[in-house]
Amino acid sequence: MGALVCFVASFVYLLGFFGINICFFQLSYLQTGYYIRGNQRAVYYQRRQSSLYHRRRPISDLSVPRKTNLVLTPTTVIKTLSEEDEQIVMSVTSGDTPSYSLETKLGDCKRAAAIRREALERMTGKSLEGMPVEGFDYESILGQCCEMPIGYVQVPVGIAGPLLLDGKEYSVPMATTEGCLVASTNRGCKAIYVSGGATAILLKDGMTRAPVVRFSSAKRAAELKFFMENPDNFDTLGTVFNRSSRYARLQGVECAIAGKNVYMRFNCFTGDAMGMNMVSKGVQNVLDFLNADFPDMDVIGISGNFCSDKKPAAVNWIGGRGKSVVCEAIIKEEVVKKVLKTNVAALVELNMLKNLTGSAMAGSIGGFNAHASNIVSAIYIATGQDPAQNVESSHCITMMEAVNDGKALHISVTMPSIEVGTVGGGTQLASQSACLNLLGVKGANKDKPGSNSRLLATVVAGSVLAGELSLMSALAAGQLVRSHMKYNRSSSNVIGAAS
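The line above is the sequence of 3-hydroxy-3-methylglutaryl-coenzyme A reductase; the predicted structure tokens follow.
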């Protein structure tokens, strides 16, 4: 028995002596569940390529020093690729199979994502460890949300509220990685709740799209402008436009001329959808119709930026886009002192000098607020909205005024361009759909088309009101730095810095 043990030990020693470290790597993993890493760099990680052999490669292109302090760190389970998948990966890496065609070729979206991910790791030499690929419905995003997926990013969702708005309570989901944001909005919701709630009024509802067309002369451009803005032609244009959808309803057309170029800004009701695709189809119908009377019209682009989408613009700030909402509340003096830890006079003065005068000094367009985009972005990500439309959706002016002989605070937010929908796009994904369901606005309202998206817009405005109230109070009371040090810093980072 002793001789047999010595023989096996000698054999393993010889393998290691000649640089064959497979046994060492495998034994270390089986015993500890860890791979050996040095100086926080991966020495090697192994991935099974087929049932016949293993392949080792560096996780990064960083050179590994000879002398290193070995550190054990957790690793992921080795994936097994079938022989068929291995051939497809090699085909993608060689360029024979386009990565974008994997879903069509395989007929399996999850498998396509895993193969694309593996091919990407091999081509770049970079590990995607930490980005999950399992646990997601890739079928649900095919052809509408994201192309060539390789996994998904996890964003935590917090709850602020209850927000008492128009006599009803709402628990507001907020997807964010910024500490203090949910807590601050939650404090604002509490102050509004104990003061009797907030009231929201929807002022306007209409999505816009503005194509740009060109003529040979400014005179012909003006003729088109007069034709489009003539009330006698509106019914005809509306009939043509509304063919794009059973919900689409043309509300108006505004034209602007730059030389011989015409920008036509169509405004359309889009039901419970955010409506960009709907209004674009309607605009295309009208352009095709106009070609009969204006054959010399050259369509330069279906969008000429006079819309204006995903850009800060005065046209949205003044005329509105999507849902225009104003939301207000009166906060009692004792609530300002006990919950918000400040006083009415300090809030009114700070709002005037910061949100109004300070923003004017900066030449802001629609940015007369403390941090409306924080709340808008968090709700948009949680509910499947287009996060890029946070740009114009965050246009907001925050007003504060002392009322009731200076013993109470009247606060309001006016937001002319909240662009939201409860159907289409990312709203149909499982997590985002759950957040919409939490607010009671999931899907389309069949009895009152458009009412769900309108309600969502008022909730966004009410949440912004709460966020503005809380942050401004923190600034007035000098609490901002302390709160961020408490909620927005990792304790591990602090300990590391101290050491």
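Note on the example: The first helix runs from residue 2 to 17. DSSP finds 18 helices and 16 strands in the chain.
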